[in-house]
Amino acid sequence: MDEKLVKKRRIVLVPVPAQGHVTPIMQLGKALHSKGFSITVIQTQYNRVSSSKDFSDFNFLTIPGSLTDSDLKNLGPVQFLMKLNQACEASFKQCLGQILKEQGDDDEIACVIYDEYMSLSKAAAKEFQLPSVVFSTTSATAFLCRSVIAKVNADKFLIDMKDLELQDKLFPGLHPLRYKDLPTSAFGPLESIPRVYSETVNTGTASAVIINTANCLESSSLARLQRELQVPVYPIGPLHIAASAPSSLLEEDRSCIEWLNMQKPRSVIYISLGSLALMESKDTLEMAWGLSNSNQSFLWVIRPGSIPASEWTESLPEEFTKLVSERGYIVKWAPQMEVLKHPAVGGFWSHCGWNSTLESIGEGVPMICRPFTGDQKVNARYLENVWRIGVQLEGELEKEDVERAVKRLLVDEEGAYMRKRAIELKEKLESSVRSGGSSCSSLDDFINSFKDE
Ligand code: UDX
């Protein structure tokens, strides 16, 4: 590490306690650790990352004042996060103050990197005059959308978003996104969106924004975002290729790898909706019918609690078990990155969370896109329309559409073209994190920016 950085070598990370946020911030920690920084993770009691052997070099601090699973259920993720920030603001400040008091001469804090939804970091970093940096776990395009929405007239925006006739039309200035692709949330009232977004895109006193993306995926959104924001934007992803950091909050069922080992190359569709998306019983049944009728094999992650009013799958009719038993394998949580790497997997049915999107492209696997909420809608549109490696299922989910989408991806020539394009993108992503690649250089630029502090 550079001489000037030796004194200030500790970086404090502040994750949102949810899988889709924890995974990339821990990968960022690993990438920075490999560059010589010490890493301290300040987390709440809710959904803690364990200091396992994979992170034995990291320092984990847990602050009091957390919320619970039932708070998440009652409030929904958006309100939950707002409350969590309020509940933990004072203890976070105290914790940061304590680190500063105890830090050695050779171990000063270089900066606090906080998830864009952990606004509690802003006031504390400001009070202690510590450099702070925003970390975005979504795409640059989703960030850009939030920035655009935060600036439009809120009343007009709310009227337009409720206008059914506008939904299929392009949203001005955000081509190729339509009104219905904008990252509004299914978890909270539309009315709160402009306020929540102006909070997240307000970088406050932060000196930079780090985004888990790569220039080859989103060059025009990145260029525009750089013009919109007052601080440097560093695209340093995909982090899962740059730095491995296993941080699953749920237990992975590895038996599915043994099952995949028995399947033919590229014959399986992998289905997973990430850590938060919910699935109506009716849609689950249509999926099962469509998958069964497609005659293709499938590995399906059904997360406990993802079907409303059901612990797991017990509320589904018996018909469901019959439909999936012949060609399907169901688990509660899978080692996703290993699954996507597996030669038997030919396609990924996804809710299009940004991590899943990057992981799928990173393995050259084409996708069936069925976004559930928020930024997933933006990613799905890009997968189908910009990168052209996905088929989006829109509107009511019907078994005939499911069957057709699975065949398009796994059987038809169209699927082979999508796979070819996905593999080309995979190669570009790999180059971007290699020495001399855009993301690798961006990470170096970020680190070098400390020298000017
Ligand atoms: C959400 C948003 O959808 C996402 O876009 C945002 O950036 C973070 O918050 P989530 O819905 O959980 O995240 O989806 P995703 O971003 O895809 O993250 C899920 C993670 O869980 C992935 O890293 C995936 O590999 C992992 N996973 C998922 C497993 O390890 N096993 C599984 O069975 C399913």
TrEMBL record:
It comes from Brassica oleracea var. oleracea. The keyword Glycosyltransferase applies. Residues 11-240 form the Glycosyltransferase N-terminal domain. Residues 433-453 are annotated as: Disordered. InterPro entries: Glyco_transf_N, UDP_glucos_trans. Pfam families: Glyco_transf_N, UDPGT. Belongs to the UDP-glycosyltransferase family. This is Glycosyltransferase N-terminal domain-containing protein.
